[in-house]
Amino acid sequence: MLLTISDFLFLSLTFSRYARMRDSRPWSDRKNNYSGPQFTYPPEKAPPEKLIKWNNEGSPIFEMPAEGGHIEP
Where does the record place it? Predict the structure, then answer.
C-alpha cells in the first residue's frame, strides 16, 4: 500500500504515539500528584483607567481621569 503525502500528513496529525501512553508509576506515586490545594488565589484587579457611562441611546461615554489618576469604580 502506497501512502501519499496527504495520507502521511493526515496520519501524523491525527495519531500521536504519546497520546495514550500508560503511566508506569505506581499508584502511591501518582496519588501524590493530586494531594494539596487544587486552587490558586485570584490576582489583584487592575484599577480602571476610565469611567464608562451610558447615555439614553445606549451608547457608552468614556471619561478619562484628570492628571493621570485612577478612577474609583
Answer: Secreted
